[in-house]
Amino acid sequence: MIPFSYIRAGSADEATAAGKEPATWFLAGGTNLIDLMKETVERPARLVDINQLPLDQIETLPGGGLRLGALARNADTAYHPTVEADYPLLASAILAGASPQLRNAATNGGNINQRTRCYYFYDVATPCNKREPGSGCGAINGVNRIHAILGASDQCIATHPSDMCIALAALDATVQVTGPAGQRSIPFADYHRLPGDNPSKDNTLQPGELVTAIDLPDGKFTKNYTYLKLRDRLSYAFALVSVAVAMKLEGGAISDLRVALGGVAHKPWRRPEAERQLLGRAPDDAAFSEFADALLDGAVGQGENDFKIPLARKAIQRALRQAAAGTPQSQVDKRIA
Amino acid sequence: MSTSTTASSIGQPLSRIDGPAKVTGRAKYAAEHAADGLAYGWVVSSAIAKGKVKAIHEEAARAVPGVIEILTHKNRPHVAWFDRSYRDQVAPPGEPFRALYDDEIKFSFQPLALVLAKTLEAARAAAALLRIDYIQEEPNTDFENSLEKAYVPPKKRSGIPAPASRGDAQKALDEAHLKVTADYASAAHHHNPMEMHATTVIYGSDGALTVYDKTQGSQNVKSYLVGVFGLANDKVTVRNPYVGGAFGSGLRPHYQVYLATMAALYLKRSARVTLTRQQMVSHVRRPETFQSMALGASEAGGLQSIINSAVTATSTFEDYQENVVNWGVGAYRCADAAADYKLVALDTPTPGDMRAPGAATGMTLFECAMDELSYAVGVDPLQLRLLNYAEVDPISGNPFTSKALREAYDIGAERFGWGKRPSEPRAMRDGNELTGWGMATGMWDATFQKTSARARISANGGLEVATAASDIGTGTYTIIAQVASETLGLPTANIDVKIGDSDLPASPIEGGSWMAASSSAAVQLACQSLGTRLFEAAQDLDGSPFKDIKFEAVSFNDGRIIAKDDPSRFLSITDIMKRADLPSLEVVETAGPGLSGMVSQVKKARATHSAIFAEVKVDDELGVVRVTRIVVAVAAGRILNPKTARSQIMGGVVMGMGMALHEESMMDTRFGRPMNHNFAEYHIPVNADIHGIDVIFVEEEDKEVSPLGVKGLGEIGIVGTAAAIASAVFHATGTRVRKFPITLDKLI
């Protein structure tokens, strides 16, 4: 760890003013940033501690929907009565990730900004375009069991590691940010980005911009939903493939569908056009199989992770069956429903 | 002399006597000892696996406030010339690694510099600023693609038996009714104990060193330091009173103790070096293992031929060897067997012993082949083992001192409900999940090592027992107290157990499952001898009630010596000490092989056995495996403490689950670097992976294996566990996975 200066922001304005300076990072729960600093992956000159800012509320929005404060802890969010009652998909996804200790410390804003778990990103002895632009990608032709099958580039095949974000993508959340140029709202689909030729950038935040909240729209998916996570051990491992499904059924047909994949791309992976194709269809195996193909269209393996393509295909279909049956995956019972 | 049973007697489930110190933080580990003026060391590791250090740019690092010195191969102090000075009790043949010796790089993560500073933070910050230029050469760390380069190690490692062949296995195989051939592979594993390797060297005012090291053998480290740094024997003491797990990673002295000692001698001040979790891949691992097996059997399933060949990885500078192949050729009755063992040298650190070295892989993979044979024959896997049960050691032809494996099979099968097992795979379905049952045999040596112990009783009746043993979380403190308590009839509250100090009476390294048998024998002998001395002192007293009776006619109970046939005749130990005017009474005894009825290894085979039964549930579509039930029946002689013994077996079983399903060092062969060097990505089982583990100790009286009939338990829990799980996965799914770990991609 390299020495750094540390300031505590008294207000959001103070935070964003400080945050636009070079090599400056906001510090919230610190569950990812501090690890990265210990490994000298991140070498901030300055940390702006935002934990004092009044951003830890979870409150109903006037026009319907729920606002999750950026500093509300993951655990407090997952166990919040309104989240449990109206957004069980989000609660389930949060509880599928990390450990109780980490969820107690990690914040919602921090969760959506967590960085990839690519082995090469974490190891400064190896090349990584995300960590050190222009140094190359160690994972291509390397150890890439956990890497992307969709939306990767020849610069980077890293995946986004969050579980929470997969549910937020499926729920069409909106990220509220404030920054030197004022406040703006970013649709969740536009928040994270694909690596392209600039993999060092995970998201579309501008310098100094601070996430203040994540808004969930009113549309509730409380019956036909699931978060199915497949991983290399039954808890405390990042997803090889995860699937968030939010579905509505009317008269035996699918009337609304959102499906997001985790563990397969640099951002939560959705294809709204494929979702629309299923509207009006009966929730049967034929429809689910077609949908899985459409969602995975263009998937490419990197060698060690080739298995993710058939695994994702099966996982999508199983998750859709779970959602349609109203039998969401338990995050406690590790038997897959 | 005799004693009565109390809560602390041998065989009672006494809680760890060191437990309160550990859970309250009073127990200090190697990196927790304070010293004035301590220099904190941070190791800078090589980014490349092979080549040379071209230049080290130190300016920026030296400019960090608080930096005291940066040691590299260029400025290090003198160390010994000859390889023999670096050898330790368990070193394999070859040239032991010397950190900072020259500019040559032999493996990734090799220590290239030690930054020393007044604070840990300054050392770490400076280390991050140290820039090293390399001359790179292409490393070879590709085990799988190097098998054709395997060689027979020219020099054998001491203590590792040569591959044992008998008869004409090839001919017998050719003539066998049934043949099964199977190639299996197991990944390299990292030990990853909770406590990282660390050393604090306290530099005394007289220049003497007190070295707190994370090691399984304080005396092994001491003799290493004496050899490497040319120290006088009385100028260095190595201590390891508490060890936060080790699994074999602490058997050899590692570079952290070398570097910390070098720093202390160079700076003439106390120094500490602590490895990071990432650096825990930099010194030792269970080697990658490839095992090729051919089994020939009669129509009924009688083994007619065993051919068992294995290749394991080693480094380019030492030939690390373990007994991989003799488990397979020695487990069952079979007239013709051939074994063959080779090494592949890679540009990696030298592998080392990890829990049940050789057997965890060799016996487990062999048991996988036995499972395959059971299907080929069409006989129940347990029945196949019973058909081929070895009444005598198939390798030596000698009888066993004891072998209650048949009882272990029976009791384990009964408890598991094995009799209800359908013979065909994929026969048990519950919704999306397929259920499978598998079993395996486990085996490990029951060895004994010469050990000394001291027993000292003071005037107030307090007993101190001391030996240079280590407790790596296994329960050594506790069983020593129990043996002493039973022998001298004193409560454990009055007993102070001193271990983990090179100045104490000689003890072997803690490893190989010999510690319980060896240390208990030495402690019992010392306490018996002390009892004799106390009795003699009591007899000499004026008006002694024991004037006319012999030692055999008294017992030790409740702090007293009592005449067996007349309990009114007694003397308390404190009375004896006071009236004889003895401030203390002390004896040192050495227990060696052959003591009190122990039979020589040449005459009888000595082994621990187990029968493991596993139930798995596998999602048929998604390949997710859950190990829902394990029953393990262990025949390990006398159990000194069923509580700590059970913990040992459970820990071994959990490690076996990790071997079966999770553990794998992921090597980038282009860079020669293991990439999953942290606990997030190097997977070991977590609570969610572990369900019921039913541990049964089978009664096994054995007066010949060791003085107390103890066989040892540290290793046996892991041996065979992964085979039972793999067999259960096959029984569930019909898919035979021959490469461990069995991850879900291999089942979809």
UniProtKB/TrEMBL annotation, chain A:
It comes from the Bacteria. Residues 1-221 form the FAD-binding PCMH-type domain. One of its GO terms (molecular function) is FAD binding. Coiled coil: none annotated. SUPFAM superfamilies: CO dehydrogenase flavoprotein C-terminal domain-like, FAD-binding/transporter-associated domain-like. Keywords: FAD, Flavoprotein. The keyword Transcription regulation does not apply. InterPro entries: CO_DH_flav_C (IPR005107), CO_DH_flav_C_dom_sf (IPR036683), Diverse_Substr_Oxidored (IPR051312), FAD-bd_PCMH (IPR016166), FAD-bd_PCMH-like_sf (IPR036318), FAD-bd_PCMH_sub1 (IPR016167), FAD-bd_PCMH_sub2 (IPR016169), Mopterin_DH_FAD-bd (IPR002346). This is Xanthine dehydrogenase family protein subunit M. It comes from Tianweitania sediminis. The lineage of its organism: Bacteria, Pseudomonadati, Pseudomonadota, Alphaproteobacteria, Hyphomicrobiales.
UniProtKB/TrEMBL annotation, chain B:
InterPro entries: Ald_Oxase/Xan_DH_a/b (IPR000674), Ald_Oxase/Xan_DH_a/b_sf (IPR036856), Ald_Oxase/xanthine_DH-like (IPR016208), AldOxase/xan_DH_MoCoBD1 (IPR008274), AldOxase/xan_DH_MoCoBD2 (IPR046867), AldOxase/xan_DH_Mopterin-bd_sf (IPR037165). It comes from the Bacteria. It holds the Pfam family MoCoBD_1. Residues 24-139 form the Aldehyde oxidase/xanthine dehydrogenase a/b hammerhead domain. One of its GO terms (molecular function) is oxidoreductase activity. This is Xanthine dehydrogenase family protein molybdopterin-binding subunit.
